[in-house]
Amino acid sequence: MLRLPRAHRPYGTGLWLGTVGALLFVGLPLSRRYGPEVKEVRRSDYPMEMLLALGETDGTIDVYFRRPGELEVTDHSPTAVFVTFFSPRAPIPERMAPNHYRFAIQGGSVSRSIEAILDLLEAELDGRHVTVHFGWPTSSWLDRMATGVFVANLMRLPLRHRKLRFAIEHDAEHPAPAAMPMPERAAGSS
């Protein structure tokens, strides 16, 4: 086995560091500009489109945050909007209605993206009554466990956005069974 003298080892390490640094210096800007995620982000909706549509309406505004798997759009009124955040690495979800807006996750997390939309709503729709609705996940146990962390972040939102109203809700798919009437007790029995 050929062994190099110790004097040549620092030059090998320097060559390795220089090569890795050059590849990162060239590769990162190119991947951000020409990456596959860029096409999906370009196809997403713009928050100003949503604000312009809401600005043309009167009355209370309802903003529903939906996950990509939740397909139902129950309110087709012009004062209600449905917002879905999606990962740019996944295909963009289908638009379910004209008031359904799809935004790419920005800033690394859904919580930051929600904060950005709420900041925009609070700043641009000042003086209007805005109610923000969050759904409750019922799809899998993993979603339910992750909800604990997400709800902890959601609980901070009313303190940061005092002009908006918040609601976490779950619509029942099946009506609750009617209460069974209690049998009448005979007088004197205990």
Architecture overview:
This protein is of the alpha/beta class and about 190 residues long. The chain folds into two domains: about 15-45; about 45-170, Rossmann fold (3-Layer(aba) Sandwich). About 40% of the residues lie in helices and about 15% in strands. The chain has helices at about 10-35, 35-45, 45-55, 110-125, 140-155, 155-160, and strands at about 60-65, 80-85, 100-105, 130-135, 165-170. It has a five-stranded parallel β-sheet, covered by helices on one side. The longest helix is centred in the N-terminal third of the chain and has 26 residues, at about 10-35.
Secondary-structure topology with pairs:
Elements: H1 9-34, H2 37-43, H3 47-55, E1 61-66, E2 80-86, E3 100-104, H4 110-124, E4 130-135, H5 141-154, H6 157-160, E5 165-169
List keywords for this structure.
alpha/beta, 2 domains, 6 helices, 5 strands, about 15% strand
Brief rundown of the structure:
The protein is α/β, with parallel strands linked by helices and 190 residues long. Helix content is 39%, strand content 15%.
